[in-house]
Every structure is written in structure tokens, then in C-alpha cells.
Design a protein that fits this description.
Layout: E1 5-8, H1 12-25, E2 28-33, E3 48-51, H2 58-68, E4 72-74, H3 84-92, E5 96-97, H4 102-109, H5 111-120, E6 128-130, H6 137-144, E7 148-152, E8 162-164, H7 170-185, E9 190-194, E10 200-209, E11 214-226, E12 229-235, H8 242-258, E13 262-271, E14 277-283, H9 290-297, H10 301-310, E15 326-333, E16 335-336, E17 342-343, E18 346-347, E19 350-352, E20 359-363, E21 370-371, E22 378-386, H11 389-402, E23 404-406, H12 412-420, H13 422-426, H14 433-437, H15 447-464
Parallel strand pairs: 1-2, 1-4, 2-3, 4-5
Antiparallel strand pairs: 6-9, 7-8, 7-9, 10-11, 10-13, 11-12, 12-15, 13-14, 15-22, 16-17, 18-21, 19-23, 20-22
Helix pairs in contact: 3-4, 4-5, 11-12
Length: 496
């Protein structure tokens, strides 16, 4: 029997991540490349490459899969991963979409419909109201109360979101939020939700078989955010009562069963100071922060996704895994925190990833690569695992110290500062913490960066006088060992 071939409808680090598991499972893989992205690192990880007109061009991506002979399409995250039209086009072409059905995406991807389902399933939600076309938005705001959030009904990532503290600001904020939502998602519909002053953002990883069966794989804390975008994620959540934890799990499984959820997904909640929790939304895809769950549970979520896609009549994950140890992930971006996080395109002149026990790198860049502005500016994810949270924070600090990315600005020092922050170290933060404490940020180079810069300058000075140097910094290795998946086991329990 010929093993299935998998096309990954994505690029950069998530494509590399999926290709790794494809190799482990003995599956042939297909990368796609859009114009202007021909030097991308993910293209070297697949067995073959197919050109597409764009990463958001559904017809082009599906045709590429058909040309290659691929029978499965993994969407990764971002791009087309939560587009019901894409899942539907894949299925209509006789191929298998590695993820939930288009119908499930429609139900849980629309935030208003998802809230209505949550209410039906007795999952707690914050006070909220639809903003109907032609409706007086002030009337809707009055029913919710202040402070409130105006939120885009489609999409996420903080786009189309505005906090409003008083009635006279509602109309202008709604106009601005709707315009941003149209630009980002092509849909300006909004809804209103009560704003919680100091909430924690807790999400539950779930996995279903598409027939009403499923499990949770514990929770993650994602409270350290900048403008509603996650900066630091960890598993499991510190300082969470068992009663709240069990309530989150039960609510999540109610939703999984209600929509016959298939594959990996994440259900997100706000948790208040008293342990009360409120449904936010469901992400019907693999999350950027999935590695921390993999490290504490031993389950390779991509393995499970691909296995479930190949066995639609079976239940791949049947038992809730035991969570052991602690894992933290941070996202390294080409951006300047001291300049309001403006993108910093440029060439990666020097790249050195940290190595050692409990360190996992997932990256889509290599030394010499030019980072432009056409795609997301994330350079990679730095993930650590340790026996307890204190050790994990210390290991993350060490890993950031040992990371060297020269040639363009990054948020590395910003992340290092978080490791030294007393409340971050204690795990006592909320979603507004970074905005309140780090609105102004002045970076300080690490000792490792200063040493590398000094060595680089010495080499350049030597060259200017015609002197060669054999002691200059060597090129960093960029093979697959740079993003190992330690401690991962297949859902059957066998080492993968």
C-alpha cells in the first residue's frame, strides 16, 4: 500500500514542523511556494515543491495538491486554516482536510454563533450583545455596561477590537473597529462584550474524532499579551484552582460534543480573580503554542491530526494524558520593542540557536536569509521544558541568553526582561499587565550578544587591514536538530 502524501498549505516554521512529523510517520510531503518566497527555508524540508499563485488562493492550492498526487492537506495555522470555504473545496476535490469540517468551522469560527452555542450548552459567557445592522449601537452598549469591548465578529488577533469606557465614545470607536475589521477580514460586523479589568487568558487544548467523542489535553496560560496578541504561553496554568480547572475542562468537552469536533482545536476563556471563567472563542485549528502542550503531555498533536485524518471512523485519542513538568514558549519577532514594536526587516547576518536539555526550537529562518515585510515577522519559537515552573523560567532565561540573531532588530531583550520580572516569575499576571508595565521599553544587549558583536567587529577590522581570522564566529547549523521534539509519544504510547 502506498503511503498517503501530505501537502502543507502554509510556510515557514509551521510548515517545517508538520514536515518533521510527516517524515517520522513515513509520509511523503509537498511544500507550496508563492511568488517572492522562493528562498524560504520550509521548501528544503519537503519531498517536493509546488508553485501557487498565493498562500490565500484556494483554487491554486487545491490544484497544486492534485498535481502532486497529495491526498491530505494540512493547513497549519494562519492563512487558510480557518476558512470554511477552503475545507469545503478540499473535500469537494476528493481530498482530505486535516482539521475540522467546514460546517464546524462555520459554527465555531463565527464568534457570535459560537457564543450562542456556548450559551445553549450552559457554558458561561460575559454579558454581550450583537450589533445588528441599522441598530443604535448606544442601545446595545447600555445593555452590556461599561467598560466594554467592541470586537470583530470575524477573525481575531486583536484586529477590529476597541475598549470603550464611556457612552460618548461608542460610535467613533465602532466606526474605527469596523473599518479595521473590513480591512483585515473583509467583514465589518461587530459585537459588544463586557470588559474585564484584570483577567487571565486560559485556553484548553481539545481533540475530537468528529463523531462526538473527544478529550482535553489540559490547559495553557496565555495571559502575557501585547495588544491582544500572545507573547508568552505556558502549560499548565499556575495558580489555577482545581475547581476552575475541572470546570474549564467540562465546558470545553460540552462544546466538542455539541459540534462533533474533529482534530485538534483550542477553546479560549477569560478567568477572573475569583476563579470564574467565561467563554471567549474557539480556534478551529492547531495553535501557535501547541508545543507546550506536547511537552507536558507527551502527545505529538500533528501526529494525532494526521492519524485521525487517515482513520475517519476511529477515535485516535481516547484517554486524557497525565500532565508532567512545565513548558514555556516565547515568540521571537523581527520587531523593535523600543519603537512601538515596528517591524525590522533585514538580513539575518548571524544566527545561533541555543542547545541543551529541554530546549526546543521551531524556526523558519536560516543564516543569510532576508526577512521582508510580505509575511508575518515571526522568526521562530523558543520552547523550554523542565520539571517545574521555576526551573522552566530559568531555562527560558538561559535559552534567550544563548540565542544570537544579528543583522536585524528583534524582541529578544524584551523577552529576556520578562524572565526577570518578579510577577512573571511568580506567574501572577493578567492580560493587561504588559501594556501597563512595559509601554516604554529600552533594550539592553546580553553578554552573549556583546561578545558576538565584539568578535564580529574584530573580524571586520582584520579584513579591512587584509588580515584573515580563523577565530571568528562560525555559521550556525540549521538542520532539523534545531527544532527537536523531545519527549513526544504517539497517541498509542509508542515513542515517535
Amino acid at each position: 500500500m502506498i503511503a498517503p502524501k501530505v501537502l502543507v498549505a502554509n510556510r515557514s516554521e509551521i510548515a517545517c514542523r508538520v514536515f518533521q512529523t510527516c517524515r517520522e510517520m513515513g509520509l511523503k510531503s509537498v511544500a507550496i511556494v508563492a511568488p517572492g518566497d522562493e528562498e524560504a527555508r520550509h521548501l528544503t524540508y519537503a519531498d517536493e515543491v509546488q508553485k501557487v499563485d498565493g498562500y490565500l488562493n484556494i483554487d491554486s492550492v487545491v490544484k497544486a495538491a492534485i498535481r502532486s498526487g497529495a491526498t491530505l492537506i494540512h493547513p497549519g495555522y494562519g492563512f487558510l486554516s480557518e476558512r470554511p470555504a477552503f475545507a469545503d473545496a478540499v473535500e469537494k476535490a476528493g481530498l482530505t482536510f486535516v482539521g475540522p469540517s467546514a460546517r464546524t468551522m462555520e459554527l465555531m469560527g463565527g464568534k457570535i454563533i459560537a457564543k450562542e452555542i456556548a450559551i445553549r450548552e450552559k457554558v458561561p459567557t460575559l454579558p454581550w450583545a450583537k450589533v445588528e445592522k441599522g441598530q443604535d449601537i448606544k442601545t446595545a452598549a447600555k445593555t452590556v455596561g461599561f467598560p466594554l469591548l467592541l470586537k470583530a465578529a470575524a477573525g481575531g488577533g486583536g484586529k477590529g477590537m476597541r475598549r470603550v469606557d464611556k457612552m460618548e465614545d461608542v460610535e467613533s470607536a465602532a466606526e474605527s473597529a469596523s473599518a479595521e475589521a473590513i480591512a483585515a477580514f473583509g467583514d465589518g460586523a461587530l459585537f459588544i462584550e463586557r470588559f474585564v479589568e484584570r483577567p487571565r487568558h486560559i485556553e484548553v487544548q481539545v481533540f475530537g474524532d468528529g463523531r462526538g467523542n473527544g478529550i482535553h489535553l489540559h490547559e495553557r496560560e496565555c495571559s502575557l499579551q501585547r495588544r491582544h496578541q500572545k507573547v508568552w504561553e505556558e502549560a499548565t496554568a499556575p495558580h489555577l484552582s482545581q475547581a476552575t480547572r475541572e470546570g474549564l475542562f467540562q465546558a470545553s468537552m460540552n462544546l466538542v460534543k455539541a459540534v462533533n469536533y474533529r482534530s485538534a482545536g483550542t477553546i479560549e476563556f477569560l478567568v477572573d480573580d475569583n476563579g470564574g471563567f467565561y467563554f471567549l472563542e474557539m480556534n478551529t485549528r492547531l495553535q501557535v503554542e501547541h508545543p507546550v502542550t506536547e511537552l507536558v503531555t507527551g502527545v505529538d498533536l500533528v501526529w494525532a491530526q494526521l492519524a485521525q485524518a487517515q482513520a475517519p471512523g476511529e477515535t485516535i485519542l481516547t484517554e486524557v494524558p497525565v500532565a508532567r513538568g512545565h513548558a514555556i514558549e516565547v515568540r521571537l519577532y523581527a520587531e523593535d520593542p523600543s519603537q512601538d514594536f515596528m517591524p525590522t526587516p533585514g538580513k539575518v547576518e548571524r544566527l545561533k540557536w541555543p542547545t541543551g536539555a529541554g530546549i526546543r526550537i521551531e524556526s523558519g529562518i536560516e543564516e543569510g536569509q532576508v526577512i521582508g515585510t510580505s509575511f508575518d515577522s515571526m522568526l521562530g519559537k523558543l520552547v523550554v521544558f523542565a520539571g517545574n515552573r521555576d526551573h522552566a523560567v530559568a531555562r527560558m532565561r538561559y535559552a534567550l541568553d544563548e540565542t544570537v540573531i544579528l543583522g536585524l532588530g528583534t524582541n529578544q531583550n524584551y523577552l529576556r526582561t520578562l524572565c526577570d520580572d518578579p510577577l512573571v516569575k511568580e506567574g501572577k499576571v493578567h492580560t493587561n499587565y504588559l501594556g501597563q508595565k512595559y509601554s516604554d521599553f529600552a533594550p539592553v544587549p546580553s553578554a552573549t550578544e556583546l561578545a558576538v558583536l565584539s568578535a564580529a567587529r574584530a573580524v571586520n577590522i582584520g579584513k579591512s587591514f587584509g588580515v584573515s581570522s580563523a577565530s571568528g564566529p562560525s555559521s550556525a547549523s540549521n538542520d532539523s536538530s534545531n527544532f527537536p521534539s523531545p519527549f513526544l509519544v504517539s497517541p498509542s504510547g509508542a515513542r515517535s
